[in-house]
Amino acid sequence: MFTHFLKDIVKPFKGLVQYFTYLFYYIIDFIDYLMDHKKDKTDRLIFFDFETTGLNMFHDKIIEYCFTDGYDTDKSIQSLIDPERKFEFIITKITGIYPDDLLGQPKIHEKISEIVDFINPSTNHDTYLIAHNVDGFDAHVLRNNFNRYAEEYVATYFTPYCWRDFKYIDTLILAKKLNCIPSNKYSLKAICEHYNITPGNHRADGDTDALIQVYKMLLQELSNELVLDSEWLYENPYIVHEYIYG
């Protein structure tokens, strides 16, 4: 009877020991994963935005772009682009860009190598590209233009079709998943208003600047949920990517 009594006492402690042993090895495995992931690698974190002749991601043309380095925001490229086609006045009303503003501007095929060089795709690091509604629009626009104009350049100086390996972080999806906007309106402008951020007014450089601030505020929300430092999350975008898509 005493033996049974001892077993009843020891049993829950045995379960706790097994649990903490499992937790210990899980933490060790996670640290090993972090070390392996970061070994000889420096991820690229890039914010970007396109203004286009319309909302058809496959057929409408770029009229302006901006790309900004997430780890050195002083590094940025921006340009107006001649789309070589007319576009509706609603686009001018939204962006403030008139067709005449684009006359004499470079064509996208003349600037695509600049975009590739700025992104600097490499097998030595993961490339994370952040935009608002990137999954629904910007990623498709980027891939279409790379496919159409950059294939030979990328194959010569980088890795063929490397853009297929780009990882995207969509701030629209991140905000929805965090459920942190009381109005349930998730346009970039609405999120900016929620966080008292000056919106970009549909110009590529202004929207990219606003996007960076929005992303940092969303990481504050995510840090509370995951109990992780927001600056650490910013330096480790794969955690954010896993949170959204994992």
Helix content: 40-55%
Q: Give the C-alpha Rg.
A: 23 Å
Instruction: Count helical runs.
Output: 9
Shape: globular
The residue ranges in which pLDDT falls below 50 over 5 or more consecutive positions are: none
| Helix vs. strand class | alpha/beta
Quaternary organisation of the protein chains: single chain
Topology as a string of helices (H) and strands (E): HEEEHHEHEHHHHH
Q: In percent, how much strand structure appears in the residues? A: 5-15%
**Widest sheet: strand order?**
3-2-1-4-5
Mean pLDDT across residues: 89
**Main beta sheet: strand number and arrangement?**
5 strands, mixed
- Number of beta strands: 5
Distance between the termini: 51 Å
Structural features, described:
The chain has nine helices and five strands, in the order αβββααβαβααααα. The chain has a five-stranded mixed β-sheet, sandwiched between helices. It has 246 residues and is an alpha/beta fold. Helix 3 crosses helix 4 and helix 5 packs parallel to helix 7. The model has no long low-confidence stretch (mean pLDDT 89).
